[in-house]
Amino acid sequence: MSKHEELVVHGLPEAGVKEPQRVTPAGESVAPRIDGVSFRPAVAHVDERGSLIEVYSEGWRFTEEPVVHVYQVTIRPGQIRGPWVVHLYQHDRLFFSNGTAKVALWDGREGSPTEGLVDVRFLGVDQPGLLVIPPGVWHAIRNIGEADLSFVNLPTQPYDYADPDKHRLPVDNDVIPYRP
After folding, report:
1. Superfamily of 38-169 according to CATH
2. Contacts of 159 (CB under 8 A, 6+ apart)
3. pTM of the model
């Protein structure tokens, strides 16, 4: 039967819901994305000894800000890091390569072309890479896997211990219309 012939199936359209397009033929998501958030998939170089994954290189011209501070974060299974965090001055550059992270983003920037947009990404062992989150974009990360999740952050500002550029909201709040 060709795609243009009608197939009669009991329960359609009353009970069934047509699956929408989720990816392009090249495998890229068609979901709306927040302006200024970018993702660079990682490439693993694998041989009999193991693997090597590059985290960051100035030569990629992926981000122009220098590396000034680097730290690793671990999240236990089922836990949320944040819960919601936003920075006013720094970009977060988060590198995921293991575990299973659900990264929820919400554009809280007034006047942004994607103001108010929710953008959810699933990153880690199955989708390793570097995620850049600009100032004004709220983010929360949940470990949805069964083992500890870890990621590396290469923020664009060194951490100011006396006056951190970090603001938080609880998971349940009246500002962000999504629960990670």
Report:
1. Jelly Rolls (2.60.120.10)
2. 69, 71
3. 0.85
